[in-house]
Input
Amino acid sequence: MKIAVMPGDGIGKEVIPQGLKVLAVVAKKHGFRYDTTDYPFGAEHYLETGITLPDSAIRELAAHDAILFGAVGADPRGNARIPQGLIETDILLKMRFELDQYVNLRPCKLLPGVPTPLARVTPADIDIVIIRENTEGLYCQQGGFLYKNTPREVTNQIEVTTRHGVERCIRYAFDYARRFGRKKVTLVAKTNVLRYAHSLWMRCFEEVQKDYPGIESSYDHVDACTMFLVTNPRRYDVIVTTNMFGDIITDLAAAIQGGMGMAASANLNPTRETASMFEPVHGSAPDIAGQNKANPIATFLSVAMMLEYLHQPDAAQDIYRACAEVVADPKNHTGDLRGKATTTQVGDAVCGKLA
Ligand code: NAI
Ligand code: MG
Output
C-alpha cells in the first residue's frame, strides 16, 4: 500500500516520525508491506516558497491509498506574514474538499489510567464516536464583504447544506453503528433556530433512520449536547453533526478523553475513489514545539485508524492494545497528562509493547 506522509509544522514534525516508527514495527510483526512518499507542505514551507498546496500535489495525493498528516499552522504570535486562515483553507480544507473526504470520524474513548477533567466518570462512561460532515456547512467560504472597513460594512457567511451531502454523512453514521455493533445514533444540530439548513438535516435523518430498524435514534440541540458531554457523557454512542458543530464538540470530546494529545481522527472518502487522510486532532502546538514534549498517542491512534481502513484490522487492534497498556502507566505520561515522559519515550514504550 502507498501512504503519503505530511508532517506539517511544529509538533507535527515530532509526532509523525514516532507514528512511522510504530507503523514499521507493526508492519513487520503482521507481515504487510507499504511505501511512503513525503510531502513538505505547511506554514513553514509556505514562508520559504510561497506555495501552500499545489493542484499537482492534490492529484498525486489522490493516487495514494491513505495520507498520514500531522498538523499545519504557524505560531500565531510571530507570523503576520501569513494571511489569517490561509494555511487552514489552502492546505487542510483543500485536501478535505478536493479529495471529497466527506466524513470526519473522531472517536472519543477514555482509556484506563488517563486523567479526565470530569469528576466521578470511569472509562466505561466515555466511548463515543463523533461523525462530522466534512465538506459543506460554514466551511465552504461562500459569502463576502460589502463596504469593507466602512461603518456600513456587511458580511455574510453561508452554511452550504445539500441533501446529497447531508444524506451520505447520516447514512455513514448508521452504517458505522451497524458495522461496529453500536446501539444509538444522535443527530446534533440546532433545528429551533437554523430553521432551513437544519430542517434538511432533520428530514434526512428521519428518512435514513427508517433503513436501520435495529438502531435507536435521537436528537439533541448542540447547546444541550455540550452540557451533556460534561454532565452525562454516557448519553452518547454515535453522534452525527454538521461541520461547524462537529469542530466544536470534538474539541470538548477531546478534553474529556484526556486532552488533545489523546484524540485521533480520520477524514474519509468511504467510496475509496480518492485517498482518505488520518491525523491527530491537535494543531502544531507552537508553545511546546521542538522540545520533545508532545504526546504522540493521538498520532498512534490515527495510524491504527488508517490500518483499519487499509484492511489490516489485526495490526490496528495491536496498536490500540499497546497504546492502552502504555497510557495505563503514569510513567509514560507526557506533560499534557501531567507526567514527565518525552515524545520519544512514549514512542519507544508503544514499540516495546508491540514487539
Ligand atoms: P493546538 O492543538 O496546537 O494546541 C492547543 C494546546 O494543546 C497547546 O497548549 C498545546 O501545547 C497543547 N497540545 C496540543 N497537542 C498536544 C500534544 N500532542 N501533546 C501535548 N500537548 C498538546 O491548537 P492551537 O494552539 O489553537 O493552534 C496552533 C496552530 O495549529 C495554529 O496555527 C492553528 O491554526 C493550527 N491548527 C492546526 C490543526 C490541523 O492542522 N489539523 C488543528 C488545530 C490547530
Ligand atoms: Mg478543531
Notes: The CA atoms of residues 130 and 239 lie 5 Å apart. Residues 11, 71-74, 76, 88, 92, 260-261, 279, 282-288, 294-295, 298, 334, 336 surround NAI (ligand 1) (CB under 6 Å).
